[in-house]
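Cast an eye over this sequence plus tokens and walk me through the fold:

***
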Amino acid sequence: MTTTSKPPRVSNKRRNSAHPLHRLLDYGSQYRQQIWQATTFSIINTILDLAPPWLIGTAVDILVKQQDSVLGKLGIQDIFWQFLFLSFLTVIIWIFESLSQYAYDRLWRNLAQNIQHRLRLDAYNHVQELDSAYFEESSTGGLMSILNDDINQLEDFLNFGAHEIISISTSIIILIGGAFLILPPFISLAAMLPMPFIVWGSFNYQKRLEDRYAEVREKVSFLNSRLANNLTGINTIKSFTAEEYESARLAGESEAYRRSNIKAIKLSAAYIPLIRMLVLLGFTALLFWGGMATYAGVISIGNYSVLLVLVQRLLWPLVELGEIFDKYQRSMASTNRVMDLLDTPINIIRGDISLPIDKVRGEIEFKEVTFAYKNREPVIKKLSLHIPAGKTIAIVGSTGSGKSTLVKLILRFYDISSGTITIDGIDIQQLNLRDLRRSIGLVSQDVFLFHGTVAENIAYGTFDATHEQIIAAAKITEAHDFIMQLPQGYETIVGERGQKLSGGQRQRIAIARAVLKNPPVLILDEATSAVDNETEAAIQRSLERITLNRTTIAIAHRLSTIRNADCIYVMEYGQFIESGTHEELLDKNGVYASLWRVQSGVS
């Protein structure tokens, strides 16, 4: 049965309490110049966009006052020249408005792409640095939701929402300033009275929507986790005829996502009608009191018409403010999730001692090593082990005895609880992590091949390898013959996780990959446990060649594959209970001898 783990959650200790917008601005500090440029052009565009009402008011003023109009007072007496000048000014304003729109649109959208690109790469690179324990508590779907969906939400807001907020703010300031310059104070106050309530309502809605959209982002993570997990385990679902069961589980996750969205929609949908009513109050006050003031001669007909059009122009942006805040809250909820991921501490600290791969001898030593997975009893208990350079040792034991954990500790997928692990006498925690891992080649039972060609998978990690080197590595592992029988040979696409190949074929490609890497230390973790006898024999012949004069650690259930090891260790409950060569262990007639008799059929 396929199961789904919940997406990563960040503990309260790690969670940053700063507002997500502040966190985003701090993160995007290198783009401040671009932000200021985009903001400036947004303001310029808004100012120019508000010019048409003034042009209309000026035209009305020319018709009503003629030589006494605003342009007439500036020295243009002839009506023809007044309208010609006004037409020329209109063309200039329109051109600069178009240019400023092109500028702000390009700047904001490029900014969105730049931040999105950097944020996704930084988040992904940070995830690569996290230890294996983090991934045990996380799900692939949850991480995919953060790295893809959440960052896309942020892009959507920066593309359009940022300009709209700046535009509305600028329009309000110009309207308020213009009203107080033109209208008597009591009319201006009446017209502007709804504004504080609009601003207060907007921020109040923002706070109330914040938690609801955080819940929406959490639910979509669960949904993505379910989808990713089920698609990965589709063959298991089919083999257990669990399609209806999984469909029902997916329906449950989708329903939870739908309900959380409905809760957010219920609140956000009420915003626009309320804003309409508040704007109506201001517009009606201006319509009535401004009209009466115009009739009394306190303000001109032109100024009155300008204010009416400006208020009407402000009506629709304010109505759209609800949608803008909706985008804003969605993006801030996503920003919090991405920033929380970036704030996840890296527990595997890189050492600063360099160890060039050509200088590695491969002597490995465990000294009183103890290790326990999170919230579990120790898997390794004060274990000591010395592996001479260039020798082959094997570790056998029952499932859960701690064999594979040793591999993870050598590669520093986890850090030990106590004790010391050294390579060539240097504590691996002090070694440069990349140098450590470059010096070790791992071939595990669970082979992972990337979607790509056979050649690309063999050369993975040795990206500068030539085609001749790739073929040579394949021949050493006896993989060349079956590769040449594939439809496109080395250019055959292996499919996701190598699903187009058999288990034995995948295993030999993995060994060829390790051969091409040519590491001083080779680790074989159950490398032949899932293959048939013929493939095992081929792999065994390959291993005899590639382990020569190379430090090799072989973990195996099949004792026939490790009988020629220089030393064999029997492991139980995190400790070694027997050690020696194959013949020595048989003479001891202990656990190893018992296992050998079972596997070889000797009574």
The beta strands are 364-372, 378-387, 392-397, 418-423, 426-427, 440-444, 521-525, 551-555, 567-572, 575-580. Residues 348-439+559-603 form a domain with the Rossmann fold fold (CATH 3.40.50.300). The chain has two domains: 22-342, 348-439+559-603. Residues 555 and 600 are 18 Å apart (CA to CA).
